[in-house]
Amino acid sequence: MDPYLLRKLNRERAARRAVIHLTDLGDGRDRVIREGDPVAGDLGAAVAAAFRSGRSGIVAAEGREFFLNVHLPPARIVVIGAVHISQALAVMARTAGFDVTVIDPRTAFATEERFAGVDLVADWPEDVLKARPLDAYTALVAVTHDPKIDDFPLSAALKTGCFYIGALGSRKTHARRVERLTALGHGADEIARISAPIGLDIGAANPAEIAVAILADIVRALRRRPLAGDGA
């Protein structure tokens, strides 16, 4: 690879931005495509599909063959609240290939015994997220039921454009949450991005089943997310 392209690729990866190293298998010419860069025609459709799936491979377009080497930032799930749902979700999500962080200032809940092997931070979300900011490849899951803990990261996730934002609570609870987020300056379209009640509606009846519903909702959001520059 050309040293300039290699530097560009490494720079984008370090910044947690999605890129594809595209090589024309006919003449060997290559380039780095960032998510949001315009690519027309059938090749553009193949590039968009690769950004969503994360799978590298050979595609045929415009009478030629190309190899798409896809580099997506590792998708993360940041869970606000060290509750029973979070315990189940952390295990399932890591099995599915997600990086998981659990944040909760309540030290009675955020214990190593309850979250063995999990990236657990016993501090207030507003302090943690200053050093570890959210981004477009992060899913934010708020499950404490406590506005003092949940509201700041939910607002931060809306501002940042996390690919998934979910919050636990009934419709009545969420209506009050909408009022608070509106007071913080968020518009109705923004707030509508929040999955609340959280997760897919599968009739979940216990923490493990709720975790399944949340993880399925996150995977669907990741694979069907609008890409940068597509106007969605």
Report a brief summary of the structure.
The protein is an alpha/beta fold and 232 residues long.
Estimated structural class: alpha/beta
Q: Give me the side-by-side strand order of the main sheet.
A: 7-6-5-8-9-10
Low-confidence stretches: none
Largest sheet, in brief, is:
6 strands, parallel
Report the CATH topology name of the largest domain.
Rossmann fold
Radius of gyration: 20 Å
Domain XdhC Rossmann: 77-218
Organism: Shinella pollutisoli
Pfam families: XdhC_C (PF13478)
InterPro entries: MoCofactor_Util/Proc (IPR052698), NAD(P)-bd_dom_sf (IPR036291), XdhC_Rossmann_dom (IPR027051)
Give an overview of the whole structure:
- The protein has 232 residues and is of the alpha/beta class.
- The protein has two domains: 3-71, no CATH class; 76-223, 3-Layer(aba) Sandwich (Rossmann fold).
- 40% of the residues lie in helices and 21% in strands.
- It is built from eight helices and ten strands.
- The strands form two sheets. It has a six-stranded parallel sheet, with helices on both faces.
- Helix 3 links the parallel strand 5 (76-80) and strand 6.
- The longest helix is centred in the C-terminal third of the chain and has 17 residues, at 207-223.
- This is XdhC family protein.
What topology emerges from the helices and strands here?
Layout: H1 3-14, E1 19-24, E2 30-34, H2 41-53, E3 57-61, E4 64-71, E5 76-80, H3 84-95, E6 99-103, E7 119-121, H4 125-131, E8 138-142, H5 147-160, E9 164-167, H6 171-183, H7 188-191, E10 194-195, H8 207-223
Parallel strand pairs: 5-6, 5-8, 6-7, 8-9, 9-10
Antiparallel strand pairs: 1-2, 1-4, 3-4
